[in-house]
Amino acid sequence: MLSQKIRNNATIGYFFLGWMFLLAKKNPDFQDPFIQNHAKNATKGHGLFLVSYVIYSYFLSQFFFHNIPILNLSIDRIIHFAFFVALTLFILYGIYNSQK
Hints:
Layout: H1 4-23, H2 33-60, E1 67-68, E2 73-74, H3 75-99
Antiparallel strand pairs: 1-2
Helix pairs in contact: 1-2, 1-3, 2-3
């Protein structure tokens, strides 16, 4: 059974602090393999979202500026919103797994 401190440290890694835990792996509070695994997953996930969002924003978004008349929104705005919803769901799923 993992202590609450270990589970909380693994959870904190999903709030874009996972890379700090990887750098401080000699610290006894962050040496546990459970924390290191969640920190790696969180860092990879945030990095993937950052790269894909930048690629979309700078290269692909110009093709999606068409408005949807009923909603008065552009497809580009809907895709941006979907990126942030996906990131939020990733964070919540990681938090749930680390606390479970």
